[in-house]
Amino acid sequence: MAKAPKAAVIMGSDSDFPVVKKCIVMLKKFGIEADVRVISAHRTPEIAAEYAKSAQENGIDVVIAAAGKAAHLAGVLAAFTTLPVIGIPMKSSTLDGLDSLLSVVQMPKGIPVATVAVDGAENAGILAAQILALKYEEIAPKLAAFKADMTTEVQAKDEALQKEVATL
Ligand code: RP5
């Protein structure tokens, strides 16, 4: 049987889950399996390293990592794998996520992390699907349909707005 597309979705804490859930929903929409885990770069560093080292042999195609505050999870996972790593900076702190954003995006040369917006869980799922579409051809038509739906939705909003403006 052909291998199914599979993403790792790692979060630094279960408190990240309400946001990260949206990424998992998006992956499912594109037919991508998710291995969902709570692993912390600081609280469980050895488990983080081990997970990243064995991710590829465990069938993972892409790693998504969500963390907040001093958010080193995505960078630490990226240090131990050559799989693409997508980072979601979480708005979990008193600094509104700016600390998380800088921690995820400002990676040193040699260890890139593709960073989405603060709490940008949906985009992490879509970006993962776009990466995996290069390997799994069944994903591309689903991405095309997703974009077409978005177009229809925005056009409907535009039409509705124009009607409302005409009544002013
Ligand atoms: C980070 O610290 C987690 O990713 C989370 O965003 C934040 C707070 O974690 P908890 O204190 O709620 O476990 O490691």
Could you please describe the fold and organization of this structure?
The chain is α/β, with parallel strands linked by helices and 168 residues long. It has two domains: 6-136, 3-Layer(aba) Sandwich (Rossmann fold); 140-168. The chain is 46% helix and 16% strand. Strands 2-1-3-4-5 form a five-stranded parallel beta sheet, with helices on both faces. The longest helix is centred in the C-terminal third of the chain and has 28 residues, at 139-166. The protein is globular, with a radius of gyration of 18 Å. The protein binds 5-O-phosphono-beta-D-ribofuranose (RP5).
CATH class of the largest domain: Alpha Beta
Mean pLDDT: 97
- Total helices: the number is 6
Bound molecules: 5-O-phosphono-beta-D-ribofuranose
How many strands appear in the DSSP assignment? 5
Query: Sheet with the most strands?
Result: 5 strands, parallel
Share of β-strand residues = 15-25%
